[in-house]
Design a protein that fits this description.
With 325 residues, the chain is of the alpha/beta class. The protein has 11 helices and 10 strands. Strands 3-4-5-6-7-8-9-10 form an 8-stranded parallel beta sheet. A two-stranded antiparallel ribbon has the order 1-2. A hairpin with a 5-residue loop joins strand 1 and strand 2. Helix 2 crosses helix 3 and helix 3 crosses helix 4. 44% of the residues are buried.
């Protein structure tokens, strides 16, 4: 396992288990199986709706002696409805208690989108609609600046509740602004990144500013087919260049694509609940891609974004919400 070194010398494992879309009933087992397989990086979020069960898996793994808490890197995320500085601490504490841990290694702002507060007792996780029972449900935006939310995140670090903070789904302009006003600089940016969406300029900006990058959906369309947001024909795993490299190296196409992500300097968080796939997705360190391989896979870039609020919010939540040009 390789690691990404953060600005303060902390080390984040390069491969983690993405917990998005893992059903509650499978989450605890998936976490235990992943830790047994060698994973030490778990990527969670309030919005995934399975943090209690993830916490049960963490507790079971520690109880069985598979790892210690200190050996794990646990990430979670602040949801859009909790951006107000008045709600950041409570949202964090809810996540921390659900996961059953004393601290988080990394806490991220999930989207640069502030929505009106929804109390825990009304609905948790709050999701996107302000009132899903309304005749015409929509998202309801809140007037909260990203700078105010970041200041509240910084206070979590001051209190010792979280070791590192960062953001998700920010573009280069937002990152440039953030590093200018942050008292505590962001340790990590988590973005959609894969051969169809290489985000080379944003990755370069982060590397120059000592910000680690985690790529979600590193296998591209596979995360979105079941949601109707992509088709089987969108799979990067069937691209000729990927298939040819996989045959030459006697690796799977998925391993080639994941290795591309690791080798360009990002952490990756593929999701699976299958024990064999957990091992496959972690078996990336006994081979390397050549410079020619890296260039050929990078040439697949088409700026194809699958997770775009500017698209899915209007289609699914009746509310235009573009955050990318």
């Amino acid at each position: 396992m390789t690691v990404l070194s953060l600005r303060n010398g902390a080390q984040m494992p390069s491969v983690g288990l993405g917990l998005w879309k893992i059903p509650k009933e499978d989450a605890a087992t998936a976490v235990v199986d992943a830790i047994k397989a060698g994973y030490r990086h778990l990527d969670s979020a309030c919005d995934y709706g399975n943090e209690v069960e993830v916490g049960q898996g963490i507790a079971q793994a520690i109880k069985e002696g598979l790892c210690t808490r200190e050996e794990l890197w646990i990430t979670s995320k602040l949801w859009n409805t909790f951006h107000s500085p008045d709600h950041v601490s409570a949202a964090f504490e809810k996540t921390r208690r659900d996961l059953g841990v004393d601290y988080l290694d990394l806490y991220l702002i999930h989207f640069p989108i502030a929505l009106e507060f929804v109390p825990f007792e009304t609905r948790y996780p709050p999701e996107w609609f302000y009132d899903p029972e309304a005749a015409n449900p929509v998202m309801q935006f809140a007037k909260v600046s990203l700078a105010d939310t970041w200041a509240a995140m910084e206070r979590l670090v001051d209190e010792g509740s979280v070791k590192h903070i960062g953001v998700c789904n920010y573009n280069t302009a937002l990152m440039r602004d953030l590093v200018n006003y942050a008292r505590i600089p962001p340790s990590v940016l988590q973005i959609e990144a894969h051969p169809y969406l290489s985000q080379t300029a944003l990755l370069s900006f982060c590397q120059r500013n000592d910000i680690a990058v985690t790529a979600f959906s590193p296998l591209a369309a596979l995360s979105y087919v079941e949601l109707g947001m992509a088709g089987q024909s969108d799979s990067v795993l069937s691209e000729g260049v990927v298939v040819d490299i996989a045959k030459r190296l006697n690796k799977t196409a998925a391993q080639v694509v994941l290795r591309w992500g690791i080798q360009r300097g990002t952490a990756i968080i593929p999701k699976t609940t299958k024990p064999a796939r957990l091992i496959e997705n972690l078996s990336l360190f006994d081979f390397a891609l050549t410079e020619e391989d890296m260039t050929a896979i990078g040439a697949l870039n088409a700026n194809r974004r699958f997770n775009d609020p500017g698209v899915f919010c209007e289609l699914a939540f009746n509310t235009p919400c573009p955050i990318y040009e």
